[in-house]
Write a structure and sequence with these properties.
The chain has five helices and 19 strands. It is mainly β.
């Protein structure tokens, strides 16, 4: 059965429940269900199809996962429209196949898909920025499911809803909301099958694929140590820093990537002669460029525009260098 996105978005009829638990109980239950979903994504052998909808359009995907005690994990994500461009993960090696340009491999413990990245982040990491609460029971994909919400502890982040199969713990859907309640994106399963044993056909076909070369990492830069970002909220941590080229400019820029476990944003600092013009764009992604005199700061990420602006305006040289 094909699940209509509009029907799903409005089909949160509550299943029979006991009296609503106290908030502490709701948080404990929400965290337990969220952890169960993460375990299912690591341990289930499944085949799924889903639709991802965001301001840029709609895409259909196939998602396959197999776990073998001898060989480890195999995971495949591919779009069902357009030229084949699958992402294949074999244990901690991710391979990206491109129809235009060079295919490449890199290290990674999971595929980054159109769903919120927090589906793979430990609850202990998320709980510093979000309350993970049980919101009740719902009916999804013609089955009983659990609705878990991630509510930010400040007003400048998106909030999230996850829909989890009661029987298997599988992720059935996810939604991202703006602080004002606007639905920004959603991932909705239209088909899901799982089995007890590894998916032999998947493992055999992946074993026959010639994986592309490993991609060299970006050039690390000590110069990013000279910048301080005062405006980042509690919970966001620096996960990568490097020098990058910002097309179409010829000069290099300092790049810093921050994440709170659920979402992330990049900060680019350009002090060359060629710089981005001031800009302010909001969609699922926010893009803000601010002229700071001797340098320009650009912030890009899945965060609300007020937060992106605050981050951009807060970047300064360490000790006023």
């Amino acid at each position: 059965m094909l699940l209509q996105p509009t029907a799903f978005a409005q089909s949160e009829d509550e299943l029979p429940q006991q009296d609503p638990p106290q908030r502490l109980d709701a948080r404990e239950a929400g965290e337990a269900w969220f952890s169960r979903m993460q375990e299912a994504l690591r341990t289930l052998n499944f085949s799924a199809k889903f639709v991802a909808i965001d301001p840029f359009g709609m895409q259909m995907y196939r998602w396959l996962h197999s776990v073998n005690a001898e060989n480890g994990e195999v995971e495949v994500l591919e779009q069902l429209d357009g030229p084949p461009q699958p992402i294949i993960r074999v244990n901690n090696r991710l391979s990206y196949f491109q129809s235009v340009g060079d295919s490449y491999s890199t290290e990674g413990s999971h595929i980054i898909g159109p769903w919120p990245e927090g589906i793979h982040t430990p609850v202990s990491r998320l709980s510093s920025s979000y309350d993970i609460v049980l919101a009740g029971g719902v009916r999804v994909l013609d089955t009983q499911a659990i609705h878990v919400r991630l509510l930010p502890k400040d007003a400048e982040r998106y909030n999230y809803s996850f829909y989890i199969d009661r029987n298997t713990g599988m992720l059935l859907g996810a939604k991202t909301f703006a602080p004002q309640g606007e639905l920004l994106s959603q991932v909705l399963l239209s088909h899901f099958e799982y089995q007890q044993h590894p998916i032999e056909d998947l493992e055999r076909s992946v074993s026959e694929v010639q994986m592309p070369r490993m991609l060299s990492t970006g050039r690390e830069s000590d110069s990013t140590q000279s910048w301080v970002v005062e405006g980042k909220p509690i919970g966001f941590q620096l996960v990568r820093q490097q020098m990058v080229e910002l097309s179409p400019f010829t000069s290099l820029a300092d790049h810093m990537l921050f994440s709170d476990g659920m979402t992330q944003f990049s900060v680019y600092v350009n002090s060359g002669e060629e710089r981005p013009a001031p800009v302010r764009v909001q969609s699922l992604y926010s893009v803000v460029s601010v002229d700071k005199g001797p340098f320009t700061v650009t912030v890009v990420g899945k965060i609300p525009i007020p937060l992106a602006e605050r981050v951009a305006r807060s970047v300064e040289r360490v000790n006023g260098q």
